[in-house]
Amino acid sequence: MKRILKYICLFFLLYITTSLLVGHIPFLRKRSIQNQINYLTNTLQSGQDSILQTQYPEGQTFSNAIFALALIEYSNKIELNKKIYSSTIDRCIINLLSASTKSHFHENLSPNYGAFYNGWSNYCLLKYINSSAFEYSSYQDYFSACHDSINQVLLMAQKDSIRVLESYTGASWPADNIVCIASLGDTNKELKQDWTNLLIETSSIEGNLIHHYNPLPDELRGSSQALMLHFLYGVDSILTNKMKNEFNVRLVDQFLGIQFVKEYEEDGREADIDSGPIIWDYGSVATIVNIKNSAKSNPIVARTTWSFLNSLGAPINLFGNKFYIFKQEPIFDIFMLWTCVSLL
After folding, report:
1. Quick one: pLDDT at residue 54?
2. Mean predicted confidence (pLDDT) in 159-173
3. How far, CA to CA in Å, does 27 sit from each of 80, 245, 310?
4. Quick check: 53 and 105 in contact, CB under 8 A?
5. Is the pLDDT reported for residue 99 higher than 90?
6. Do residues 23 and 300 touch, judged by C-beta distance below 8 A?
7. Are 233 and 183 in contact (CB under 8 A)?
8. Are strands 278-279 and 282-283 parallel, antiparallel or unpaired?
9. Is residue 136 within 8 Å of residue 84, measured between CB atoms?
10. Burial 233-269 (b: 16+ CB within 10 A, else e)
11. Count of CB atoms within 10 A of residue 17's CB?
12. Structure confidence at residue 12 (pLDDT)
């Protein structure tokens, strides 16, 4: 009996140690990414994005968009198998552009279907068109036309005067507008700057940080701020670095090389659909997404934080597939993949 317990303890020690090292060892990191891609490809092909839509307000859009962006970023960093990944990216973006996905948003907005849908769809199209995998796409002309069309829709929505675009009737989120701004690419620089300035001006938070939800101009949220920093970096890196410094002071704590991000500045606030689980005031979504920001300036901290979350997710990585939490939260798998490709 003692020998059995000894082997069990050794197994769990090896399991935890390996989970904590994945982010730091190139071979393990690459294996993790490839096996996660295998699992998520099969999962989404089986219709998991529709199931996620029943669990989250934008589950279908988020799952396809984040998975596509992870594959696009990964394909830009590898030499082989780009053609294999392009077919999966094609399917994700076709799903994004489908009538089924659009049906979850309000058509009678300006732009039609709102800022969230247009921003994420257009950003995925932009990143794909500019990627090394796009030459293998079966929908090059269609995707290019869709990107041009959404660009024009966004420009027309801001034609008369710059305003904060709604995601749903009577409801707007600055983060959704930031994704729209980033989706315009390197063109329309003046519009992008004016639009960004407007979002900052509508916020009453000091340090150029931007609020979470438009009727609450003084509410700072870790999840949306981390996401906005990621997308703003390609729009105005100088401004983003200033915002990031303020963000780090107010919401980020570091222990043993691991960064934890508070969802709220005030202690004891409850979790919601945007924050994900909050543990000791630290938001799960904010902490995961911020890994992409840390990867730009402090890759060791980013890898340590990702590895810690990887171990918490109880990963199973066998037979060419990797998944977390016994396949119970695929959206966690998708976000972990999206952040992991930033560690390469």
Report:
1. 93
2. 95
3. 16, 33, 16
4. no
5. yes
6. no
7. no
8. antiparallel
9. no
10. bebbeebbeebbebbbebbbeeeeeebbbbbbeeeee
11. 10
12. 78
Pairing status of strand 316-318 against strand 282-283: unpaired
| Cα 39 from Cα 33, distance rounded (Å) | 10
pLDDT tier at 189, thresholds 50, 70, 90: very high
**Tokens describing residue 90:** 């094609």
Please name the residue that has the structure tokens 């069309």: 149
Angle between helix 222-232 and helix 284-297 axes, rounded to 10 deg: 30
Which pair of tokens denotes residue 80?
């082989």
Q: What single-letter amino acid sits at 18?
A: T
Which token pair is 74? 């990964």
8 Å CB contact between 263 and 227:
no
Residue 3 has pLDDT above 80, yes or no: no
Distances (CA, A) of 260 to 63, 71, 89, 254, 279: 24, 26, 31, 6, 10
Q: What is the CA angle 171-177-183, rounded to 5?
A: 145
Confidence category of residue 79, pLDDT binned at 50, 70, 90: confident
The mean pLDDT value for 49-67 works out to 95
Find the DSSP H helices in 56-186: 59-77, 82-96, 99-102, 114-129, 140-157, 174-183
Distance CA 318, CA 308 (A): 20
pLDDT value for 285: 97
